[in-house]
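Figure S4 source data
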Amino acid sequence: MEYLVKSRLSRLQRKEMKLKNFPSSSIPLLALICRFALAIIFFYAGIEKIIDPGDFAVAIYNYQLLPDGTINLLAIFLPWLEVLIAASLITGICIRGAALISALLFLTFATALTINLVRGLDISCGCFGASSGNISWLYPVHDLSLFCVSVFVLIYDCGWCYFFD
C-alpha cells in the first residue's frame, strides 16, 4: 500500500514539474493544436498534388529554379513527403523530425516565392496543386508564418504523453 502512495505522489510531482517547465500551462495545448493544423495543411496539399502530378510539375517548372531533369522527380516525391509529414504529426511518431522538415520546406517555399516575385513572374503558386492561385507578396508571408508555427511545434510539442501521464 505504501508503494502505491509513493508512486501516486511521484506522479503528482511529475505533473507539477511539467507545469513548471512552461511559462504557461496552455503552451503544450497550443503546440498540439498547431501540430494538427500543420498536419491538415500538409495532408490536403499532398493529396491535391498526388491526384494530379502533371499540373504540379508544370507549377514547379514555371518557377524556373530547378534543372528540367529534376522537376518530374520532385513533382512525385514532394507530395508523398507532405503526406508522410502529416501522418507523423497526427500520430505523434517522430514529431520533432517532421516539424524540422516542415520548417525547412516552408523556408524553401518562401524563398522560391520571393525569388519569383522579385523577378516579376506571374505564375501559379502550386501550393495546393491545380487549385492554387497566382503568387503575391502574401504567399511568402504565409509560408514564413507557417515556418514559425513549425518551429514552435519543434520546440514546445511534448507529444501525447504530456496529456495522459
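Figure S5 source data
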Amino acid sequence: MDLSALHSDRIEVDDDLWAVNAFFEEKGWTDGLPIIPPTEERVAQMLTAVQRGPQDVIGSVPPRWAPATVEKIAINAVMAGCLPQYMPVLIAAAEALTDPKLNLYALQATTGGPAIMLIVNGPIRKQININGGSNVLGEGWRANAHHWTLYSSDAAEHRRFLSRHYL
C-alpha cells in the first residue's frame, strides 16, 4: 500500500511501548488500557484487509459529527489490538452506529443509559472466531474483546470515534 494515501497526522514518540502508552495517557487519548502504537505499517496492514479507500467516509460520528473514515477505523483498530481480518466487521459496525436511524447522538445525550448491541452472524463470525455461545463476554475470545475495546473504551476525542457504546 502507498503510505502517501494516509492523511492522518503523524506523531513522533520514542520507540518504546511504555513511552507510547504514557504519551497517549498524558494527552488524554486513552482510557488507561494499553494500546498498540498505530504505526503507518500497522495501519496499512489493516487497510489491506478491505477493498475500500482510506479516505472513504463510513459515517459521521456525533457529537462532533466527525467523519469516520476507513483510515481512522484502521488506526483505532490497531490501537485496540484488532487483527486485520476484523476490519470488515469493524466497518459494518461503524456503518450501523452512524446510521441516522439509530440516532447515536440522542443515545449519547440521554441520562437513561441505553446500551447498544451488535450481533455478528454468518460465515464471518466463524472466520474471525467471534464467540456467540456461553462465556460470550468472558475471557478467551480475542475477537469479542477487541471489538468491545475498539468501540466502547475510547475515553478521549482522538480515540473516541464511536463513543462509549458496548458492542
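Residues 3-152 form one domain. The CA atoms of residues 16 and 114 lie 38 Å apart.
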